[in-house]
């Protein structure tokens, strides 16, 4: 697993039922007090918009962003995770452990890994409070309940949760539907992959209520040997829209069991047996090579959110949200030649080591509130917002079997650690139109972080950070279709739990400068921007892993990212659409020292690991007739170093892949309103490539990706 200290927000069955029944009680309470009639169906969209009003950018905000709507990804949503669906956005690089986009997947933006991408769901933080990671495997098929995604590259606007050092990713769940509907979707594909989804909505009733939900199940054997995934998820939301009050309550969650595939393989094995998986490998007492059949990751994660929006006047409204996430689970693995003493067991006479099976558990709670007060008139938009969140995590391990061990000692906790984190922030952001064409943007955030943990150093960690994050910018509007913008933003970020395990880390600082031009006409949408991100004490990936598979990061002193990005959507004709993007960047550590040997060695300026200089993508779509879409999706990712030493032997080669997507929506206009067919053929030219890797004490390990493969699905919409 990537990191032992994941935010595994999950619950046993009883807890899930309790959360589910609590939210149902809220729904019925709201139903019983509904009195307002719905007169304007545009209010359904307004409810969704105000939910993320405080965290999203618009055309007048001087930050770099891309909107990714349900229409953009639903034709490819056949079971793969959200990062894979986002693969063709600017400056985005994705990877998947199992090799086929199901199970553990990851995303990097501008060379920054997922721990540095701030993720919110309806404005609620999703990143793990301790590791800062995002684990999409805990939310299988969440794309089926996602209305839109906004990716802000760079620092972006003030948001809740850990600071954005590469990007902010904001997900908005399904909007309230005007009319009743139902949907049954099924897909099948390579590597024994299946997805089954059922959705429903009551539509907005005369009393202003809507109830909607989804159930999903995904199964895949993976491209890599034994890298299987068994995933299930649910989503239920109730909405009430009155004259001045809008309320949305949600419960959603997922349960996953995946066979571990996070070890990667060495270069020689990539060439001879790219699907080989070391996980679970051991030699039994008869000297026979075997694989443990339950070398698995097992987690469930359940979320509850309650959003309340109150409209006080045409220019003033308020958002208040309460949230709770529960996580519990473990990963299990077979370990050879383990010390009895290390696991708190009494060794038999004449024996110090044994083979054993261990489980490493997490039991976490994350809860809090977010709020915003929003004022908007013709010239001024002001948002006062903030959040108060708390995380409580328990980390413990159990031995469930050991050769020649006393059965009375099995099941005892051989370690029992904790982590407690409180995160409070308040921000004030404003956009003021100085005159018709020029608007001024200001954003000031105060953030306080308190973190206490044991089991990570000789002494326990007890740190408090106070961060001041100012942002400012200008937007000049030439006409209704075109504007330019310039912005400056400062951000700070605290170390994560793994950073503390591997040293005495310092918090990071970032100064981000963005300059861009936007064109949005009927036939052409074009975004061009340049950026300069200047870091101090950036925690960069060294390319190494610690003893539990977590990436090791170290402060690098001063470093920077300087880049150019462009993306477009061009209607060549009524039948052809071209959507290219390109990213060119220089990513450098300044005056970098290598201290691996204990004696610092000056290396001068070196390239930052996992930061390709060149990334390009394109989606070429042909629409021969109405409701038929045929797309060729292309992606090039340049060479990436696996460490920060400019080591010519430690790198990921560049790769160029192409996918094919076909979809056909057939209107029926009866009880069955539409039948949709979709096909995704990935890596159609069967290119052999690796999308991720690491340098482990001078040996490179890689994560091979699948060759030519397919997914095909059909959806029935009622």
Head-to-tail CA distance between termini: 41 Å
Work out the radius of gyration. 25 Å
Quaternary class: single chain
Count of DSSP-assigned helices: 6
Largest sheet: 22 strands, antiparallel, barrel
Q: Share of helix among residues?
A: under 10%
Overall number of strands:
39
Morphology call: globular
**CATH homology group:** TonB-dependent receptor, beta-barrel domain
| Low-pLDDT stretches | 1-41
The total tally of domains equals 1
From the 3D structure, determine the CATH topology: Maltoporin, Chain A
- CATH C-level name: Mainly Beta
Strand content: over 45%
List keywords for this structure.
718 residues; mainly beta; Maltoporin, Chain A; 22-stranded antiparallel β-barrel; five-stranded mixed β-sheet; 7% helix; 56% strand; globular
């Amino acid at each position: 697993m990537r990191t032992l200290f994941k935010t595994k927000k999950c619950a046993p069955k009883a807890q899930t039922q309790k959360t589910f029944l609590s939210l149902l009680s809220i729904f019925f309470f709201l139903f019983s007090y509904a009195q307002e009639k719905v007169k304007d169906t545009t209010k359904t969209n307004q409810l969704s918009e105000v939910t993320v009003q405080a965290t999203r950018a618009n055309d007048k905000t001087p930050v770099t962003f891309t909107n990714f709507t349900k229409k953009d990804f639903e034709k490819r949503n056949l079971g793969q995770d959200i990062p894979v669906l986002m693969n063709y956005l600017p400056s985005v690089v994705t990877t998947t452990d199992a090799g086929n986009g199901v199970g553990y997947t990851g995303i990097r933006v501008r060379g920054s890994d997922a721990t540095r991408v701030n993720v919110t769901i309806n404005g609620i933080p999703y990143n793990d409070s301790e590791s800062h990671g995002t684990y999409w495997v805990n939310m299988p098929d969440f794309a089926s309940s996602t209305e839109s995604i906004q990716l802000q590259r760079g620092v972006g606007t003030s948001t809740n949760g850990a600071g954005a050092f590469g990007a902010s990713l904001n997900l908005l769940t399904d909007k309230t539907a005007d009319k009743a509907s139902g949907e049954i979707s099924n897909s099948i594909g390579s590597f024994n992959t299946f997805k089954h989804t059922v959705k429903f909505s009551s539509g907005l009733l005369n009393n202003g209520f809507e109830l909607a939900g989804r159930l999903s199940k995904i199964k895949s054997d993976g491209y890599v040997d034994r890298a299987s995934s068994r995933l299930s998820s649910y989503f239920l939301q109730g909405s009430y829209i009155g004259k001045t009050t809008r309320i949305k309550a949600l419960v959603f969650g997922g349960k996953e069991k995946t066979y571990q595939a996070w070890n990667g393989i060495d270069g020689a094995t990539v060439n001879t047996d790219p699907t080989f998986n070391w996980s679970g490998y051991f030699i039994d007492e008869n000297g026979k090579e075997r694989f443990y059949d339950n070398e698995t990751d097992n987690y469930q994660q359940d979320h509850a959110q309650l959003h309340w929006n109150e409209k006080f006047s045409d220019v003033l409204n308020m958002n208040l949200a309460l949230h709770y996430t529960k996580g519990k689970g473990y990963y299990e693995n077979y370990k050879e030649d383990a010390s009895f003493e290390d696991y708190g067991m009494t060794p038999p006479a004449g024996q110090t080591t044994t083979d054993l099976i261990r489980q490493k558990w997490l039991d976490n709670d994350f809860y809090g509130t977010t709020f915003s007060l929003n004022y908007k008139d013709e010239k001024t938009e002001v948002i006062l917002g903030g959040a108060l969140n708390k995380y409580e995590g328990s980390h413990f391990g159990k031995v469930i079997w050991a050769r020649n061990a006393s059965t009375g000692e099995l099941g005892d906790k051989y370690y029992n650690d904790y982590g407690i984190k409180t995160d409070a922030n308040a921000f004030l952001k404003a956009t003021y139109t100085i005159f018709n064409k020029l608007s001024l943007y200001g954003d000031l955030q105060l953030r306080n972080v308190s973190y206490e943990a044991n089991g990570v150093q000789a002494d326990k960690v007890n740190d408090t950070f106070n961060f001041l994050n100012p942002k400012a910018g200008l937007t000049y509007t030439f006409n209704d279709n075109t504007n330019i913008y310039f912005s400056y933003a400062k951000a700070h970020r605290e170390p994560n739990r793994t950073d503390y395990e591997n040293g005495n880390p310092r918090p990071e600082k970032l100064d981000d400068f963005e300059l861009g031009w936007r064109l949005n006409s009927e036939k052409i949408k074009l975004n061009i921007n340049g950026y300069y991100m200047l870091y101090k004490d950036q925690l960069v990936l060294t390319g190494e892993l610690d003893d539990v598979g977590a990436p090791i990061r170290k402060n690098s002193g001063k470093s920077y990212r300087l880049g150019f990005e462009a993306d477009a959507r061009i209607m060549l004709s009524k039948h052809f659409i071209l959507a290219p993007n390109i990213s060119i960047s220089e990513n450098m550590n300044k005056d970098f020292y290598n201290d691996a040997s204990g004696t610092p060695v000056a290396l001068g300026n070196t390239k930052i690991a996992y930061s390709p200089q060149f990334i390009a993508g394109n989606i070429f779509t042909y629409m021969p007739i109405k409701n038929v879409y045929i797309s060729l999706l292309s992606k090039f990712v340049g060479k990436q170093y696996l460490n920060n030493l400019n080591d010519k032997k430690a790198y990921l080669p560049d790769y160029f892949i192409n996918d094919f997507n076909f979809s056909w929506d057939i209107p029926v206009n009866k009880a069955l309103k539409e039948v949709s067919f979709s096909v995704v053929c990935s890596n159609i030219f069967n290119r052999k490539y690796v999308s991720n890797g690491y340098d482990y004490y001078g040996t490179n390990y890689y994560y091979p990706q699948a060759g030519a493969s397919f997914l095909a699905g059909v959806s029935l919409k009622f």
